[in-house]
Amino acid sequence: MRSSLKTLFKKSDFIVTLYRLILAIKSFIVFKPIRLIRNFSWYFSNYLNYKYRNTNHNFRMSYHNLFPCLTDKTDYLPIVTHYFFQDTWAARKLFQLNPAHHYDVGSSITTIAIISQFVPTTYIDIRAVELKLDNLSFIRGSILNLPFEDNSIDSLSSLCVTEHIGLGRYGDPIDPWGSEKAVAELKRVLSPGGNLLFSVPVDSANKVYFNAHRTFTREYVLELFHDMRLIEERYIYGRHLTNDYDKMNRYGTGLFHFTKEHV
């Protein structure tokens, strides 16, 4: 019964949309007094237990240094599965390709920072990055107007970025054609024979989930890159990474490795 209700809710666009709206409002007004009391009771019980048993005087303990962490006691490790699979896929591909220099537009900065430690990398984003790291350089710029010459980059990635362009979520201008323009710009700067690692959410149809992101069908992704050669495609559905695109699974993430044909 519970399983059938869950399936019904997932298939009802109205219920799913209502749920998302509730979550958005909840982040501003949520207050759970019973859960708060229970978690603090657990916290102070542990604190007193530790203090009573503490014979390790190498570390100073004082109530001035209390630092409650109340949400990490879970039965499972919280993982955002599409980032888990996507970022490990990209790291593996770049390790195999071993470019002399890699460029990334707007992907997870943590992932790109790790990649930069085995491939010198330049990171481009519309937001400033105020950190320094060996082998990693930053350029502030837009995916709609990349500061590079035509056909100038041999190794390029943009992971779960293009679907956001033109929705205003990150302070960018509203543009219903933002995703198409972003793809055109990525293709413009990639050199003949160069490699592009690209990902977007996939669904049973092209949709706008305003203002979070757009979703794409496999057919539309291949249409956008019709003048490039597809080397590899992988799909993330829930907790599974697969080779097959499945419209019946509805929402997922598509991972694509393209190369630009020589003119």
Brief write-up:
The protein has an eight-stranded mixed sheet with strand order 3-2-1-4-5-10-8-9. The radius of gyration is 23 Å and the shape is globular. The chain contains seven helices and ten strands.
Structural write-up:
The strands form two sheets. This protein has an eight-stranded mixed beta sheet with strand order 3-2-1-4-5-10-8-9. A two-stranded antiparallel ribbon has the order 6-7. It has a domain at 81-260: Vaccinia Virus protein VP39 (Rossmann fold, 3-Layer(aba) Sandwich), CATH 3.40.50. It has 263 residues and is an alpha/beta fold. 35% of the residues lie in helices and 24% in strands. The termini are far apart. The mean pLDDT is 91. The protein is globular, with a radius of gyration of 23 Å. Strand 6 (207-209) and strand 7 form a beta hairpin. It has helices spanning 2-11, 13-29, 33-53, 81-97, 109-115, 178-189, 218-224, and strands spanning 102-105, 121-125, 136-140, 153-159, 190-202, 207-209, 213-215, 228-237, 240-242, 252-260.
